[in-house]
Amino acid sequence: MIPPPFPPDEPRRLQALWRLGLLDTPAEERFDRIVRMAARTFRVPITLVTLVDSSRQWFKARVGLDGDSTERSLSFCGHAILTPDTFVVRDALEDQRFADNPFVTGDPHVRFYAGQPLHAPDGSTVGTLCIIDRRARDFSAEERQQLEDLAAWVELELNALTVQEARTALAQQERFFELSVDMLCIAGLDGTFRQLSRAWTRTLGYSEQTLRATPLLALVHAEDRASTTEWLARGARGELLPYFEHRCRGQDGSWHWLQWNATVNPEEGIFYGVARDITGQKRLEAERRQMERMKSEFVSTVSHELRTPLTSIRGSLGLLEGGILGELPSQTQDMVRIARTNTERLIRLINDILDLEKMESGKLDFHLEPLELGALLAQAVEAHQGYARECGASVELVAEASGARVMADGDRFLQVLANLLSNALKFSPRGERVTLRLERVGPRLRVSVEDRGPGIPESFRARIFEKFAQADGSDSRRKGGTGLGLSIARALAERMGGTLDFVTAEGTGTTFQVELPEYTEAGAPPASMPHPLEPATRTEPRATRPRVLHVEADEDNRRVVANVLRDVADVVPASGLAEAEAALRSGPFPLVIAEPVLPEGGRLPLAPLLAAAPVVLFSVREAEPELARQVSAVLVKSRTSNEELRSAVLRLLCSAHPPPPGGFP
Fold first, then answer.
1. Using N-to-C axis directions, what is the helix angle for 29-42 and 141-158, rounded to 10°?
2. For 215, phi and psi rounded to 5 degrees?
3. Of 66, 140, 294, 652, whose CB is crowded by the most CB atoms within 10 A?
4. What's the Cα-to-Cα distance from 469 to each of 426, 465, 473, 476, rounded to whole Å?
5. Distance between CA 225 and CA 221 in Å, rounded?
6. Cα 9 from Cα 16, distance rounded (Å)
7. pTM given for the model
8. What pLDDT digit, counting tens, does each position of 325-364 carry?
9. What is the DSSP string of 629-658?
10. How many CB atoms sit inside 10 A of residue 1's CB?
11. Contact 294/282 with Cβ under 8 angstroms?
12. How far apart are CA 152 and CA 73, in angstroms?
């Protein structure tokens, strides 16, 4: 902090100040109305008329501060009186004179300051009219002129007024009203205007004479009159007037949204108001809401109309590739593999876009619970073995913190790992391995995904977590991708209280590191991560097979699910609730698979199904937390492979009815 120096004419300046006879005098309305007007005009929380004494700055009028003085050595005004023009500090934290000032680092947390010097009759600078904000801001030339005009008004009040000076003060006030961009007014508490700025005529189109003759309520939209009447009544009762918005009719019949900021003088029965035309802002808000509605409808369409058929396509191709119709010719097998791979790529793109939209709108649900991290990692490794074989690489798990737990959403954490592992495998040379490592680092657990690939180019590292970011190298382009995965992965990690970062070296590989706080609740029972997607073990069929009811409006998906579960259970299809209830009357089911999202956008009533049997949601959308707690499992179609669906169903069937000797098929 740099205290303000004394000006060269300090003795003469102090004499001029004392001759004014204003130091330590009671508050006066003639000064108070000016600081109120300044606070409303510039929309700042603090305005002051300060007089700078030998060791203090004393406030003749103030808005937003309780005390009546502060030390001169700490004052901004002590600096302001040293300049002939407006003294502006855009951001006190970036100004070495004030960055560590206690009024900046503490209450009242000054960030912005603008002070216009005030002069005694002999020209000596005796104080300032200043405005203060708690946020940094710019100060335009027009605003400087407005502050100068108000300061001229203060100076006329400071000095003994002659008739000519009074006329000058009135001219300054009229000039301020004329130049103001905002709609300034002085009005009675009945809403009749007494003085208006030119901005009223520019905005509404009426002449000043017409406005003076027309009560405010006569201009207000019928739907807003009751609230406007109550607003004026609050002022009449001496209450503080809040920010207020209503519609006023213009001369051409159009409606203008006005936002008000006003203060009341009950003794005089008037209020000082500043209105601002926010019609354009309201129009933009309406357009933004319309865009959000359109975006929501589009997301809903993408979610159902694209993911539903793509799920059945992927499932069908997976069944063909797995040999449901027998061994395919090698060329046909290769074409099916290409189709299935690109279908999965398209599904991942859709999932990334939908996840991004949900995160930006705050609609991505998280269900945090204590989970064993090693089990999650083992599940992630198992899920990526097939992709590793396609890439000609391998995945190994090195768990150095056995039994360690974290508070996390299991599905979301697996999504983070899926992105990191798939990237590592995609960029690994054939024959290399990717290591998934778990270790303790102080009170946190670190999960590392280490590859031996080409590394991340220096030019791309700063942008790697940006949306749609991709390296420019030809090899990176050849590998493809949306550029969304890492952005989503970092956001998911942070939502679970963790971090995601990386270290890399070109030519030797990259390590992505996820760190989460270790869950160490005293006395908490050991938690283990369920494995709903473990690979099923094929055994010989038994005479009596379990029946599974599948409620799904889409016929193609019904057929795919029936084929996926053909060696697990007899699947009874139902296209809606009526068919499902009829099937339930035919006998008990140990499990029901249901798609709760209907094609027309409605919801399938689940209560009758939940009352009959455990329910698995196999849906195009993720379930809300309340619904997820009511069912046995939630599987998102676009994130669940045929094998994962089969494993989950088999696990739940075994849980409901332990298999007889020989097991379920």
1. 180
2. -60, 150
3. 652
4. 17, 7, 12, 11
5. 6
6. 11
7. 0.42
8. 888 888 888 888 888 777 877 777 777 777 776 776 666 7
9. TTSSEEEEGGG--HHHHHHHHHHHHHHHSP
10. 15
11. no
12. 26
